[in-house]
Amino acid sequence: MAQDGKINPFEMAKEQVDIAAQHLNLDPGSIEKLKSTKRELIVHFPIEMDNKKVKIFTGYRVQHNVARGPAKGGIRYHPDVDLDEVRALAMWMTWKSAVVNIPFGGAKGGVECNPKEMSLHEIEHLTRRFTWEISLMLGPEQDIPAPDVYTNPQVMAWIMDTFSILKGYSVPGVVTGKPIELGGSLGRFEATGRGVVITSLEALKHLNMVTEKAKIVIQGCGNVGGVAAMHFDRMGAKVIAISDSQKGLYNENGLDVKRVLNNKAKHRCLVCEPKEETEITNQELLELKCDILIPAAMESQITKKNASRIKAKVIAEGANGPTTPEADDILNDKGVFIVPDILANAGGVTVSYFEWVQNLQELIWSEEEVLDRLTRIMQKGFKEVLGISLSQKIPMRTAALVLGIGRVAEASRLRGLYP
User: Which CATH number does 191-344 carry?
Assistant: First the structure.
């Protein structure tokens, strides 16, 4: 499970499949197929940096399963990117698409780099060369990337442009999360964070808790955590703590969310106003007493080491794989209601699907249409997962995996083995 103290996310993802398989009537061969990836590409490519020195970067693109449609998944730029992380994220994308019944399979990609130490010029060169290296796997009918950790609409624009140059004509459907001017969808930037809020509200409703004055703690303040914070703030909930990769800010009476996020955008870090808030660590933030805890940063944040100290009533997972299976057992015993990642953060892939459909059919939907469709799909997904959880008396994560894996397994069975 762990190597050099680090939790292996791919082993964690496979363990989740084994847990769900106990509730599904699947033969051993089908289970092994579901735990295996379909394609994996590792590329090593040179980039000329601003100082004129050439540096070699390593990138990955993994397609986990395409039984239900083309592969779909983000690309992240991060120093800790490795093959097993990308494999796990690709697998979670497969289940995520299936849980909300979107006709996509799962994929993921990444480059091992530190974009915080790179200029915009260097990031553009890296993006275009990485796109060129993995282009044989990409295409609107084959594999459609999207933004992830430290990538954004501008990075998607470079990917689209590079792929279009390769093809000789414009191919907007090769990526989602693009700028609106290049065929991006209205509502896409906020989609993941909004999906977390929608499913959190459904959880509160199920538990007979009120949204107004509910205390919210959020790890991460990017396009998932930051967006969720803004929406909860507008609804009258109290965001009492939020963090970035370096530190967190805490105010028992509620943070001034707009000021905190504006400071983050302006200074590229959280700025503590001593009269208003207290500086805390990410670990301290996770263990605060609150109604809803939203881990919206990286995977493996809640483990067997800190799970017993979690005081949240609800955990809505904005990040992928933030809770380990051992931590799940502890949290379930404590009665914590978990909205699992493959449900809670499925808003991003849902609106990516809308963007892809609009690109292929040359349509433009209003933001109201997009958000209305997103809300209905997320609410339906929550109800289906909750229904399985209650009827089979199993935790919400297991129920979500049973729903998602069951749909993928059935699609694979219907397609059969060839030859």
Answer: 3.40.50.720
| Residue 223 confidence (pLDDT) | 87
Contact present, 145 and 138 (Cβ < 8 Å):
yes
Query: What is the mean pLDDT of the segment spanning 3-16?
Result: 81
Centre a 10 Å sphere on the Cβ of residue 208 and count the other Cβ atoms it contains. 6
Per-residue pLDDT at 1: 45
Q: What is the average per-residue pLDDT within 335-342?
A: 96
The answer to whether the Cα torsion of 47, 142, 88, 103 is positive or negative is positive
Residue type, 128: R
Instruction: For residues 92 and 348, give the distance between their C-alpha atoms in angstroms, rounded to a whole number.
Output: 13
From the list 35, 94, 90, the residue with the least C-alpha distance to 67 is 94
Residue-wise burial string across 365-395, b where 16 or more C-beta atoms lie within 10 A, e elsewhere: beeeebbebbbebbeebbebbbebbeeeebb
User: With contact defined as beta carbons under 8 Å apart, do 317 and 297 qualify?
Assistant: no
If you compute the radius of gyration of the chain from its CA atoms, what whole number of angstroms results?
20
Active site residues: 108
Residue 74's DSSP bridge partners are 146
Please tell me whether residue 150 adopts helix, strand or coil conformation: coil
**Model confidence, pTM:** 0.92
Report the greatest alpha carbon distance in the chain.
Answer: 69
- Predicted confidence band of residue 274 (pLDDT cuts 50, 70, 90): confident
Strand ranges (E), 79-126:
105-112
What are the φ/ψ torsions at residue 228 (nearest 5 degrees)? -60, -40
- What architecture does CATH give domain 36-175? 3-Layer(aba) Sandwich (3.40)
| Bridge partners, residue 55, by sequence | 47
Closest CA to 156 of 132, 182, 133: 182
**Same-fold call for 36-175 versus 191-344:** yes
pLDDT in tens, 374-387: 999 999 999 999 99
Strands (E), 131-203: 143-147
Q: What is the DSSP letter of 117?
A: G
Query: How do the domains of the chain map onto residue ranges?
Result: 36-175, 191-344
